[in-house]
Design a protein that fits this description.
InterPro entries: Peptidase_M20 (IPR002933). This protein is mainly α. The protein is built from four helices and no strands.
Length: 116
């Protein structure tokens, strides 16, 4: 499907459907990939002793489509929040300023490392 003509014509409606109208199960991303290993090494350099623990997010992403196309997907943030103070996307969403800067530095270094 080509979306360019649909984007130009606001009257045209685009509907995306599964071939069999059923959601597909997505494979898990490997835990021994270059990105995952780089995240572990960088995490140890920035926060010694803090393990990298894989978890499945319950948020909505397009990753299932990419996973089914054979592209591993990872959600990496480098942000630390208190378990009892988790307010992501709430009306009172907040994070400590230093943790925000640390997370930004982590992502910068990670992207730089895996892009070389």
């Amino acid at each position: 499907m080509e979306l360019s003509p649909a984007q130009a014509d606001r009257q045209r409606k685009v509907t995306v459907r599964y071939l069999d109208n059923k959601p597909r199960r997505s494979p898990a991303s490997p835990l021994d990939s270059e990105l995952f290993k780089a995240a572990e090494v960088l995490s140890q350099s920035m926060w010694p002793g803090v393990p990298v623990i894989p978890a499945m997010g319950a948020d909505a992403t397009d990753s299932s489509f990419l996973l089914n196309a054979g592209i591993p997907m990872y959600g990496v943030s480098g942000l630390f929040v208190e378990a009892a103070d988790y307010r992501t996307h709430g009306l009172n969403e907040r994070i400590k300023i230093q943790r925000l800067y640390d997370g930004r530095e982590f992502l910068y270094r990670l992207v730089k490392q895996v892009s070389q």
